[in-house]
Amino acid sequence: MEHQDAPCFSIGDVEVLEKQCVYDGFFKMQRYKLRHKLMEGGWSQPLVRECLVRSEAVAVLLYDPYKDTVVLLEQFRIGTLDAHEGPWQMELVAGIVNEGEKLEDVAYREAQEETGADVLDLEYIYEFYASAGGSNEKITLYCGGIDSTGVGGVHGIKSEGEDIWVQVFSREEAMQALSENYISNAIGIIGLQWLQMNWERLQKKWQ
């Protein structure tokens, strides 16, 4: 069996029969009735699928190449309300892209709002879908070079309900937290694993 260079199908291989907004609150929920082409030919039966509609987001792994340290945030997250470890997550800087806003500008803005740190340089990491089986949320992940001197404490925009505890960890401490599953969200896991593969290169680049 030969590997293909691209997915088998494209958007033209989906037929949307019905589309309805079933909820419009902090997030939106769209319900689709659709069918799509099948791997072995023909079309699927009509399927009903809900999709959580979320704005595009940017996340930033803040790394200090001079001190070999990482900035991690802790804040309340409704999605882990029933998790055994509780609903506060250790994670990276992240925020929603406003209409017409450049992704890089979001990275700079969110780093300042959520940690008080000024990003000195940005390096693109990946863009990915957080949970494509039920949401359209796309995240662009960067690594931001910073000077972590004086970074820490409580940050966030109170009018937006943000209450963020910011801490600076050595890279080794951050990796230990990752290995012990204290960091259990996809953005944090992806970012820190990428850093472990690239920190030496980043130090040469940014120092």
Walk me through what this model shows.
This protein has 207 residues and is of the alpha+beta class. The protein folds into two domains: 11-53, no CATH class; 57-206, Nucleoside Triphosphate Pyrophosphohydrolase (Alpha-Beta Complex). 21% of the residues lie in helices and 38% in strands. It has helices at residues 103-115, 171-179, 186-206; strands at 14-24, 28-36, 47-53, 57-64, 69-76, 88-91, 93-96, 121-129, 138-145, 153-155, 164-170. Strands 4, 5, 6, 7, 8, 9, 10 and 11 form an eight-stranded mixed sheet that branches. Strands 1-2-3 form a three-stranded antiparallel sheet, with no helix packed on it. The longest helix has 21 residues, at 186-206. It starts with 13 loop residues before the first strand and ends with a helix. The mean pLDDT is 94.
CATH architecture of the largest domain: Alpha-Beta Complex
What order do the SSEs take from the amino end to the carboxyl end, as H and E? EEEEEEEHEEEEHH
Which CATH first-tier class of the largest domain would you pick?
Alpha Beta
Q: What separation lies between the terminal Cα atoms?
A: 47 Å
* Helix percentage range: 10-25%
Number of domains: 2
Question: What oligomeric state best describes the polypeptide chains here?
Answer: single chain
The profile of the biggest β sheet is: 8 strands, mixed
Structural class, by secondary structure, is alpha+beta
Number of helices: 3
What is the assigned CATH homologous superfamily of the largest domain? Answer: Nucleoside Triphosphate Pyrophosphohydrolase
How many beta strands in the DSSP annotation?
11
**Stretches where pLDDT falls below 50 for ≥5 residues?**
none
What's the average pLDDT? Answer: 94
| CATH topology value of the largest domain | Nucleoside Triphosphate Pyrophosphohydrolase
Global shape: globular
- From the alpha carbons, calculate the radius of gyration and give it in angstroms: 20 Å
